Amino acid sequence: MKGSNMEIARHWVGGGTDNESLQPWESLKTFFSENDFHWQDIEDIVSQPDRIYIGDEFSPKRLPDMKDLKNQLKAADQKGLPVTLLTPVLTDGGIKAWGKLFDTFHQWDHAAEVVVNDLGVLLYLKQTFPGFSLSMGRLFNKGFKDPRLDTKNITPAAAAACLNDCSFQHANMRTLAKNLGIQRFEQDLFPHADLDPDALAMNGSDLDVSVYFPFGYVTTGRACITAGMNGRPGARFNFSAGCHAPCTTHRFKLSHPGSGPALLQNGNTIFYPYTASMLRHLLKTAETHGLRLVWQGGLA
Question: Which of 80, 113, 240, 248 could make a disulfide contact with 133, Cβ separation 3.0–4.6 Å?
């Protein structure tokens, strides 16, 4: 059940609202049942969110158009829920192209929350819409995220310690965030890090913390293989043909030699599912330390 100190946010993927397709949910039910986790524990929590996330961290092609944005904001208003806008890395041209989206979101709420994942967007929003509440997205949080590593053979101890290291735990990153007016860190569970509740909750910092689940991301990039596969026969992986967002309907399970979790590719980004023990730890820590959990089950 949802703890009193826990805040739950739900990501409305693409142009959808809370009426997400049952397909992602059914696939996740199978995953959880295979990994000794009670699906009902998750469903009870995410069915009544405290906040809605819209937009996308990884690709500007998955940002909502104006029609989708207005529909999502209207739906959130009807539910009485605040909204957070996720933004990806954007070029100068991309910032200009999405200026109307930022302006419309600002008109809806001058103090709305926006997650930024590059300094260009961050500085643009601070200058143009100073009332926004800015969060530093998880693309800023660097660390070792390949879940395929066999940690049993990691030596010496100093090498193993690197697996627990991430940018957000460093004093210089926290100072930078404070100087830039950042109010929140957005992150995921690293696959090999020790599950230290105080470290996860950034104890000793005045920054709030959001943690995404049930996936973490391994890597992302501007060249999207999924979009490249949408070309003419015989012209696959043609990145100059534009993007028709095939990732909104097609996802891929990735196989690899050796042991390790199954990986999922959605568009230009590869994800790993949390284990049952990681999920149990996350839910417990969120309850005791007042974390915000961001459900992204619609990516499956």
Answer: 113
